[in-house]
Amino acid sequence: MKLVDIIWASRPLLHLPVWSIYLVALKYHNNLSGDSFDWIDLVMLAGLSFSAAAAYYVNQIYDFETDRINRKVGFLQSGILEHIDMMKMYILMSVLSLVTGALVSPLAFAIFLVLFVLGFIYSVPPLRLKDRPVSGLLANAIGFGFLISIAVMPGMNFHNAGLLGWDNPFYFALTVGSIYLLTTIPDKKGDALAGKRTLGVVLPQTVVLLMALILVLASAYIAYYSRHVELVYLSMISAVTIIGAMILRRDEAILIASKLPILLLTLLAGYFFWGYLLFIVAIIFSARIYYKKRFGIVYPKLA
């Protein structure tokens, strides 16, 4: 059972944004380059998952107290796993991600190296970027949004760089930044008690929601300028949910505003790559069974 626990402690459901951003950015890149999904993409997706898993393992170690206060489902708090288990897996996943990047290309290695550094200083003192208002936002926007969109073209060089579709990294940096801002609101009580200074803690809720709305509207403009119609719809639906959260001022509305864009992006990635949709259905179904049996809760859910 412990191996199963260790696998779920890597938070595979939280890899959905990583995989979905990669696949949607890949689709638009392939439209420009004429390429198609191949084994390099599978390797890059695996490497990104290794990197994400490492970040989530180390985050759970150093967020132990905050997660306890915020009453989040915790593998450490419940005694299912020990700190040493998390640290061993953090080291293993970090090494695997860097080796994966080194095997693919110098650019891929550089991306995974930056993700490794960001993942470490995001959670580990003394820097702990996640506890700081601006650096927490930038780390998410750059790490999840910008770099993952660039990772779709690990063979990029000076001559073919135009085939990347440079609107995508900026689009996803803005949308990820918007979602990150929304996630700081439900956690602000526990974050404040733990001495963190996230934007959700230091700013009024209305200001944080307004900032999230501005970012998502900016992303809609980029998508419209790039003629990525699907992304325009996605951003505008997200904007409506944020406006709804501003009006209703309820935690459930904020949770929906932060989770619905990820669900829609995942469905869009599944529309582009149907095999991914089947994979997601399988992993969500498995998660429902695991979390019900292990923690007695229904997970995942939208709000």
Mean of pLDDT = 93
End-to-end gap: 29 Å
Largest sheet: none
Instruction: List segments where confidence is low: pLDDT < 50 over at least 5 consecutive residues.
Output: none
**Overall morphology:** globular
Radius of gyration: 19 Å
The number of distinct helices, counting runs of at least 4 residues, comes to 14
Total strand segments: 0
Q: What is the percentage of strand-forming residues? A: under 5%
Classify the secondary structure makeup into a structural class. Answer: mainly alpha
The ordered H/E elements are HHHHHHHHHHHHHH
> How helical, in percent, are the residues?
over 70%
Helices and strands in order:
Layout: H1 2-9, H2 16-33, H3 39-62, H4 64-69, H5 83-104, H6 106-123, H7 133-150, H8 167-183, H9 188-193, H10 199-202, H11 205-225, H12 229-248, H13 251-272, H14 274-295
Helix pairs in contact: 2-7, 2-13, 3-5, 3-6, 5-6, 6-7, 7-8, 8-11, 8-13, 11-12, 12-13, 13-14
Account of the 3D structure:
With about 300 residues, this protein is mainly α. The chain contains 14 helices and no strands. The mean pLDDT is about 95.
Brief summary of the model shown:
75% of the residues lie in helices and 0% in strands. With 303 residues, it is an all-alpha fold.
List the keywords.
single chain, 303 residues, mainly alpha, 14 helices
